[in-house]
Write a structure and sequence with these properties.
The protein is of the alpha+beta class and 67 residues long. It has 2 helices and 4 strands, in the order H-E-E-E-E-H. It is 25% helix and 40% strand. Strand 2 (30-37) and strand 3 form a beta hairpin. The radius of gyration is 11 Å and the shape is globular.
Length: 67
């Protein structure tokens, strides 16, 4: 995992909490921001709350949505 890419993604979410795509179905409370770490496409999963942003998980798309 490229730490700089992850930091950039977190900063983007902090500056614009609606940047990520709203998820559907049982994952509807969460949003997913797509970012690149080198040649790999990654996802940052987070939840918006009234006064906070909770980072849930990050990693490659394959398997990231499974608990």
């Amino acid at each position: 995992m490229d730490r700089q890419a992850l930091k950039k993604a977190i900063t983007e979410v902090m500056e614009n909490p609606l940047a990520g795509k709203k998820l559907k179905g049982e994952l509807s409370p969460f949003r997913s921001l797509r970012f690149s770490a080198g040649a790999l496409s990654q996802r940052l999963i987070y939840q918006l709350e009234s006064d906070a942003i909770t980072m849930i998980s990050f990693g490659p798309r394959q398997g990231i949505y499974k608990s």
